[in-house]
Design a protein that fits this description.
It is built from 17 helices and 20 strands. The protein is an alpha+beta fold. Strands 3, 4, 5, 6, 11, 12, 13, 14, 15 and 16 form a 10-stranded mixed beta sheet that branches. The two termini are 32 Å apart. The mean pLDDT is 95. It binds flavin-adenine dinucleotide.
Length: 557
């Protein structure tokens, strides 16, 4: 058996026996960023996540690292300033994960604002980023737009604006923060739920939480974790912890849905910005073979874990895509996969007309022994984390300054990445030249793991059957299942196929074809018996069916 189960047991023992400076509840990008920031400042850190890292909103975003051009309409200059400047910073510390993406914003004759005003807006956008965009924006006249974005509706087209933001892998960005925080000494466990806050004898100070490990191989006994400061970083679940603390609720959540279609059906050359009234929806090329359409933005008041894609969400997004790309004629049968997430937006003071009008700013609240963070964006997670640790510092005493601005994430910790994203190309060429894996696999490994990719190739070299592909069409290999379990704390088939690797969203069969092979391989490393192995495959089938609920009737799995 591999070392992962032993490490988990040791981490759970440490949770029960030690006293931590910080106990972070929630392993989305916010909690993961806080754990890394705090561990880097020398604090003794624990983090518990009730399911898997990034299983909440942090794997359900549009996967963009951006300033949010549309926020300029609401004069939210600070948000844009922070977003665009974090974008520049993340391109330096995580160039393998945060890659430039060119956007095309088409403008039609009846559109308001028109081409001129949008051009001015993009000058402000570039300016607020301190001109750090991979390339400054530019205006393109209608005849040329037809050439550079051939499928786009041309009727009444006035022109388009081209500008840059970045694309990322949200789940992996979260995971790299977890990996680094662990390397820096943090005690981090997934599948461990905070069920109760613990108070001091007088009842006014929170001194930790009772947590319950929920993996079937755990004994399920509740543990009391002691911490000087407990952090509520539970995203859309933040109000659950607020209630446990006896504090006011703070969220007004919204739901967002994305659809994945085959690039053979729709293959924009840019990330195209589509407008419907005041809303913006993107049509984003993804990995050369898929296109993502999203997102919706509708108020949501059910439990976050119940969020799913409805037929209306699909109709709304396909109508918009078909309007902008009339030749595509997409139907629900073209949808290969969907994902739905909940934005943990902060309740506005006054009334707002739509979910899109609610600010994406974050909020930090403090009470003795506890700090709550909610709202914000994936893009600004690093900055939010620094602020939260500073707040906790007021209760902890003297604290070293934040040091995440200059420390590369683990996948970028190699001189080759000082060249930015070009480092991925150089690394993949170097790996392909070794002749152990083919060029497509080398490229995928370099893009997924960055500096850690050579160790994955070494696994294949040592055991050539690990070079077997998980899906004939996509370049993911069996060695990555071992990496997920041994190095990335994956504990279920969904952890592997849904977040460590994106087959759930990208494979034509959403990973159903390889789920059994993956489960069998995981069983050998995690000590599962036959029953658990079979259950894992059944659970994964249910996850896939959940993403297809919009089709109605019995799930077609
Ligand atoms: C549709 C959509 C599109 C978006 N697109 C973008 C984008 O392109 N760019 C961008 O910058 N931002 C985007 N965002 C926003 C961004 O995704 C979120 O701000 C961010 O992911 C929130 O992270 P989080 O860690 O706060 O929450 P989460 O990722 O939800 O993490 C909270 C975690 O807490 C855990 N948890 C809850 N209760 C407990 C408990 N009792 N014990 C232990 N653990 C618990 C949950 O399981 C969960 O994993 C988008 C959001 C949505 C919904």
């Amino acid at each position: 058996m591999a070392t992962a189960p032993k490490e988990r047991k040791a981490a759970l023992r440490a949770l029960a026996s030690e006293t931590f400076d910080l106990l972070i509840i929630g392993g989305g990008v916010t909690g993961a960023g806080i754990a890394r920031d705090a561990a880097l400042r020398g604090l003794k850190v624990a983090l518990v996540e009730k399911t898997d890292f990034a299983a909440g909103t942090s794997s359900k975003s549009s996967k963009l690292v951006h300033g949010g051009f549309r926020y300029l309409e609401h004069a939210q200059f600070r948000l844009v300033f922070e977003g665009t400047n974090e974008r520049a910073l993340l391109m330096k510390v995580a160039p393998h994960l945060v890659r430039p993406l060119e956007f095309l914003l088409p403008v039609y004759k009846h559109d308001k604002p028109g081409l001129f005003v949008l051009d001015v807006g993009l000058w402000i956008y570039d300016g607020l980023s301190k001109f750090s965009s991979p390339r400054l924006h530019r205006t393109v006249r209608a005849p040329r737009v037809g050439k550079i974005e051939p499928g786009l509706k041309r009727d009444q087209l006035d022109g388009a604006l081209l500008y840059y933001d970045c694309a990322t892998d949200d789940a992996r960005l979260t995971l790299e923060n977890i990996i680094d925080a662990r390397a820096l000494g943090a005690t981090i466990v997934n599948y461990t739920r905070a069920v109760k806050l613990v108070r001091d004898d007088r009842g006014d100070r929170i001194i930790g939480a009772e947590v319950q490990p929920v993996d079937p191989n755990d004994d399920g006994a509740t543990l009391a974790v002691r911490a000087k400061v407990t952090i509520n970083a539970t995203g859309p679940w933040a109000d659950d912890l607020q209630r446990l603390a006896g504090d006011k609720t703070i969220l007004h959540a919204s739901k967002g849905v994305h659809l994945v279609v085959d690039a053979k059906r729709l293959a924009p050359h840019h990330a195209v910005v589509m407008k419907q009234k005041k809303r913006i929806v993107f049509c984003i090329p993804w990995g050369g073979d898929r296109t993502v359409i999203g997102t919706t933005d509708t108020f949501y008041d059910a439990r976050p874990e119940e969020v799913h894609t409805d037929a209306e969400d699909v109709a709304y997004l396909l109508d918009l895509a078909n309007n902008y790309f009339p030749e595509a004629k997409l139907t629900p049968d073209d949808v290969l996969a969907t994902w739905a997430g909940v934005r943990p937006l902060i309740k506005p003071d006054g009334d707002v007309a739509t979910a899109s009008d609610v600010s994406r700013e974050h909020l930090i609240l403090e009470r003795p022994g506890m700090v709550t963070i909610a709202g914000g964006k994936l893009t600004t997670y690093r900055r939010m984390a620094a602020e939260v640790v500073d707040h906790a510092g007021t209760q902890l005493g003297a604290l070293a300054p934040c040091a995440t601005e200059s420390r590369p994430l683990p996948g970028a910790a190699e001189p080759i990445f000082s060249a930015g994203y070009a480092g991925v190309t150089q690394l993949s060429e170097r790996l392909a030249a070794e002749g152990v894996v083919d060029g497509a696999v080398a490229k995928q490994l370099a893009g997924t793991y960055g500096a850690r990719a050579p160790s994955v190739v070494a696994r294949v070299k040592a055991e050539p059957t690990l070079g077997e592909r998980l899906d004939a069409e996509l370049a993911f290999v069996m060695a990555q299942v071992d990496v997920a379990v041994d190095e990335e704390q994956a504990l279920t088939v969904e952890d592997v196929l849904g977040r460590r690797l994106p087959l759930l969203l990208r494979a034509r069969d959403q990973g159903l074809g390889c789920a059994e092979r993956v489960a069998r391989r995981m069983a050998t490393r995690l000590g599962w018996d036959d029953l658990r192995t079979r259950r894992e495959v059944e659970d994964y089938r249910r996850v896939v069916a959940g993403t297809r609920r919009f089709r109605g009737g019995a799930p077609r799995v």
